[in-house]
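Pasting as-is:
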Amino acid sequence: MKKETVALHVAFVAATMLLPLILTSYGLKLTSEVLIIAMFVMSLGLIIGFAGLVSLGHAAFFGIGAYTVALIGEHVDNTWLLLIAAVVTAGIVAFLSGLMFIRSSGAYFLMITLAFGQMLYAIAYKMEGVTGGADGKAVSESFNLGFGAIESRLAFYYVAAAAFLACYYLLRVFLSSPLGKGVRGIKENESRMTALGYNTHLYKLTVYSLSGMMAGFAGALYAYFNQYISPDLLHWMFSGQALIMVIVGGVGTLLGPAIGAGFFVILQNYISSYTERWPIIMGLLFVCLVLYGRGGVIHLTSLVWSHLQSKRRTGREKSVLPKEGSGFESLKG
């Protein structure tokens, strides 16, 4: 790894950990929410940008993680066990559903995941005795990793930040592994990978299950963060918002979906504090970004940075060029 790359990663981690120094109490709460949603959106960005699986029911796994904490938490008070249960449950559901869904692709995959998510939403909505139905359910358990209950906003921010960084770097390791490279190859040309002897269905099922597990983990943290859950966490509209965040941040990148999540959540909170018609304004902003900023925020930033770098190089080249003369300087003296 190059020294510049290492320095960028160190700066990224340091900035994440030192951010509370400049944030207010409300800023800490909002940033914690952004980090949790960013993990969820990164899990969706993984299957969209690197496996070519566009899902409109990914919120199902987020909701499963949240409901696992709320329901099992009534009988178990161990946070570690609840987090593991949320990840495992979401992973099992992702694996079993993936066995049926992975063989479809394109619009068919999109629609079948939409139907699946709405089916779970309907179950949560109708089972009022268990899930609370439309009224939702309060999360009674506090977040405790064995060092005492984490109740302050600052402490929970560091939990969310550590979880976000761990998920981000685990995804980087996964995509650099032979399995991750195989998944990328399937997105580029599945027919060629099949001809080379790769079991493409198994590769896609693996990354789909991993994505579901990460979404379930994010949902579990969100249940602790919000202390309340409702069937809306399973609804297709939440999946649609996550899809918008991936597109806005940058498809095919790891950090792009996280940036899109921050852009969406912060902008939504800011605009909604001024007007009740914030969805119209946000819709117009996103339409403009998709039309004129193809590739998302991270690609726009990369283009601007490349443009500034090229300008610097051009300026340096001009500074070292010899001054133009009349051609008679060599005759002087």
